[in-house]
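sorry for the late reply, my laptop died twice this morning and i had to redo everyting from scratch. anyway the thing you sent over, i finally got around to it. pasting the sequence first so we're on the same page, its 117 residues, then the predicted structure underneath. double check i copied it right bc i was rushing
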Amino acid sequence: MSRGNILREPVRRADLERMAADQFGDMVKGVVDVARRIMAIGGELHSDDEAALLDDGSRQEDLWGINLYPGESGEGWIEFDSMINVRPRQANRSRDVEDESVRRAIREIVGSLVTGP
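ok and here's the structure:
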C-alpha cells in the first residue's frame, strides 16, 4: 500500500504528470483538507491519502477526495469523485462533492498547491 505525500508547499503540474504516468497513466488521486488548506497525493487509494492526513492531525469531516488530471486544462482537470466523500451525516450522499462552496474551496487550495506547466 502506498501512503500519500502531504503537500504544504506548491508542486509543479509537470511533477504530477510524472506521478500520474507512474501510477494510473493520466490521473493522480488526492485528498484535500479544506480547513488546513493542505493536500495529500500519491496514495494508491484515496483512503491512503486520507490516512496520511489523519495521522498528521486533520479531521475526517474536513477531508475530500479528488482525482487530478494534470494533462487536462480548465476546471475539468479536477474530478470530485471518491468513496471517502460519501457522508450522509454531512449531507453528501454520493461519491461526488455536492456542496459548491466546498468545491470552490478545493479548487482554490489545489490552485495554490499546484503551479505552472
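The beta strands are 5-7, 11-12, 28-33, 38-41, 63-68, 78-79, 114-115.
thats about all i looked at so far, will dig more tmrw
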